[in-house]
């Protein structure tokens, strides 16, 4: 059989294998981030075979787990969730081969040899590299392989832009509106609920001192999780520690985490989704991304529950729409952009950045209060909300000229919800604008003024957020102005960043020389 790559970014997806006689044994290979309650590969296999002909295969690949120093809490979450999933399938009466191997290839080969499988059925991987491996699997194993469509993303079921032009910029807002209409989400007779498509203008409030966001639900580790924690703590490389692991590791716990968000934080999510604060870990964010990315929760089910609360009057439109925009808009658009731009996306560097990730990004030891807080938070928990990631961390990378590939690798190492499909468009495309604007229509850069406006870090910082240069001037300020001076012509040509350039009128020639000198000295010391 000849395997052909699909032309569409996601509709690959069925290598149909014809056979006349039932196979003696069929293996359903389930990837670690595809832990769906009702797995389509199992359903497809059961349609054609008796349950006693099926073998479910899950592989822990040592090579993949140790490709780079990953967040230890992410590894605990991934491995514990996989092992809980295997136990659930066994309780459902299915035969499960759960094995640890040096690689996925070695695990598959050993499985086929030992258990005599005659065919592999698997769901398409969400990453480019993983899907390439799957599409060549038949040749490597010498067995029929059926690769079915990935159902974890709604953009895999409906693609608003099936044939994108290579260099055309597509705006997420219109992608999001198309998805809303197709899936009938927050729609009233063809019009957006509440009369507006987007309530972003109402969702940019600083967190008031009198509001204390509730802490998210925590889950104590059971025996399976404790065993995984002990294993991961012994890994030679990694980020953070396994201590205080409190994430959900199965479908039941993930549903409880969803209910906790819906009942306790969704109501205030919208107005304060951009707020920066040292007073709260999650603020009013859902912290559901790790579970969506693993398959412990499914996006349309989550979206429908949020819409139901709006329809019942239990959630304001600003919060319901703001959350749904993150899932149905941002998450799906990032996945779409990933498949649109891969495999070349990792090498994009439109701003010609050439610096390495600073050492203090690995240990959080910096006098910049906002950055120290965000870095220590992610080192210890594996999590920052999206504004901490975008306007504190990515903003610094952008202003400091950190290489996009290096920044992407850092994000992949640090975050509990980091996977190969989500970080490149989020970091390289949106955060660093390194793809020439294919993902985001503007550069997300800001001075200390924005961080002070939205957060409560600056009052306790060594640096003065009001000073552009001079003693104790905030590095975000002189780096920001240095970046604008360096790229003035290019920024001026973009209507969304031209206003940044207009602010240069407040800097005379002496100011310009000083911010450039301080930026050069700071960056030289940073990279030495």
Provide an overview of this structure.
The protein has 528 residues and is mainly α. It has helices spanning 40-48, 62-65, 72-91, 104-115, 128-135, 137-141, 172-183, 223-233, 251-264, 266-269, 289-294, 299-311, 317-341, 360-363, 369-381, 386-400, 404-414, 423-431, 448-454, 475-486, 488-493, 498-502, 509-527; strands at 26-29, 54-61, 96-101, 119-123, 145-148, 187-188, 191-192. The strands form 2 sheets. It has a 5-stranded parallel β-sheet with strand order 3-2-1-4-5. Helix 3 packs antiparallel against helix 8, helix 12 (299-311) packs antiparallel against helix 13 (317-341) and helix 15 crosses helix 16.
Which percent band covers the strand fraction? Answer: 5-15%
Helix content: 40-55%
Assign the structural class, choosing from mainly alpha, mainly beta, alpha/beta, alpha+beta, or little secondary structure.
Answer: mainly alpha
Q: What is the overall pLDDT average?
A: 94
The beta-strand count equals: 7
Largest sheet: 5 strands, parallel
Strand order of the largest sheet: 3-2-1-4-5
User: H/E series, N to C?
Assistant: EHEHHEHEHHEHEEHHHHHHHHHHHHHHHH
Distance between the termini: 55 Å
Which residue ranges are poorly predicted, with pLDDT under 50 across at least 5 consecutive positions? 1-23
Q: How many DSSP H or I helices?
A: 23
| Overall geometry | globular
Query: What integer value in Å does the Rg equal?
Result: 24 Å
Question: What distinguishing features does this structure have?
Answer:
single chain, 528 residues, mainly alpha, 5-stranded parallel beta sheet, two-stranded antiparallel sheet, 46% helix, 6% strand
